[in-house]
Specification:
Elements lengths: L1 E4 L6 H6 L13 H10 L4 E8 L2 E11 L4 E9 L8 H14 L6 E7 L6 H6 L3 E7 L2 E7 L1
Antiparallel strand pairs: 1-2, 2-3, 3-4, 5-7, 6-7
Length: 145
């Protein structure tokens, strides 16, 4: 049973211990950096731990701007030991459902580094397509909701 849970003092250290595979480290910031950024962007950051039952398996963070409206997948990771088990796909389905319920939500954006081993093909498999835009050195993608 995959669910998205708030991060608090009881589970913070478990979430901070989650790591992607070493080859994936160039593609996503650590959960510690992401949580710190979330606290400095409290007005727009929405973040959750990804759990399978009582086991933490990943982390997700959105940039949530309902007044614009604009919604972006800011961070997403599944721990290396839990990858290729379907957790990522199921967690993002929960994220899609959450964003659909936000004011004016019609699509979800993300961006990724275009490099071998990057997450682009995974996102494409979930319905994201490249927009042709760049955000710094990352290619922008969008997915209709």
């Amino acid at each position: 049973m995959i669910e998205l849970r708030e991060i608090d003092t009881d589970n913070l250290h478990d979430i901070l211990r989650l790591k992607v595979a070493p080859a994936q480290e160039p593609f996503v910031a650590s959960n510690a950096v992401s949580i710190a950024q979330a606290y400095f962007h409290r007005d727009t950051a929405w973040f959750r731990a990804i759990y399978d039952g009582d086991t933490p398996v990943g982390f997700v963070m959105l940039e949530d701007k309902p007044d614009v409206p604009s919604y972006s997948l800011w961070r997403f990771m599944i721990d290396a030991s839990h990858q290729r088990k379907g957790y990522g796909r199921r967690a993002l389905e929960l994220v899609f459902a959450h964003v659909k319920g936000r004011p004016g939500a019609k699509e979800l954006h993300t961006s990724c580094v275009d490099a071998p081993g990057g997450p682009g093909p995974f996102y494409e498999g979930l319905g994201f397509t490249y927009t042709g835009e760049l955000d710094e050195d990352e290619r922008v993608m969008r997915r209709p909701l």
